[in-house]
Amino acid sequence: MSKISKFFKGGGSAASKGRGGPSPQEALARLRETEEMLSKKQEYLETRIQRELAVARQHGTKNKRAALQALKRKKRYEKQLSQIDGTLSTIEFQREALENSHTNTEVLKNMGYAAQAMKKVHENMDLNKIDDLMQDITEQQDVAQEISDAIS
Fold first, then answer.
1. Alpha-carbon gap, residue 25 to 28, rounded angstroms
2. Which residues does the annotated region (Disordered) include (predicted)?
3. Domain total in the chain
4. How far apart are CA 63 and CA 94, in angstroms?
5. Is residue 98 part of a domain?
6. Alpha-carbon distance values, 122 to 50, 114, 136 (Å)
7. CATH code: domain of residue 32
8. 122 within a domain of the structure (yes/no)
9. Which tens digit of pLDDT belongs to each residue from 25-74?
């Protein structure tokens, strides 16, 4: 099955169909494939436009009808090229939005992991024990200061 028919018929992996939609990586890959295909089509149309322009110049005033037909084809190709430019812009915007969403999701997931790790670290800590420990440390620092003052 060709890439284009897969794209329009939704020919994806069985895993993506079972979950209700493609993964961000699958969607990004498809968008990139579509961008590549449209870029190739752009190049093709640009060469066709140049060819038709050359044909029109070649016929010039000698064969006006052939020159006019070449200019009409050129205009048609330019219209297709313009449509492809708009489609490419839309796809690029969608791809960037998907990439940003995927990045945000990963950041949020990692922040959740960090929060769980902090919770686990703080599990064994009791505020009363910490207060007592801080008071003991302050008392010991005071004792050390008194000893230091007595020595000097």
1. 5
2. 1-25
3. 1
4. 47
5. yes
6. 70, 12, 21
7. 1.10.287.1060
8. no
9. 899 999 999 999 999 999 999 999 999 999 999 988 889 999 999 999 99
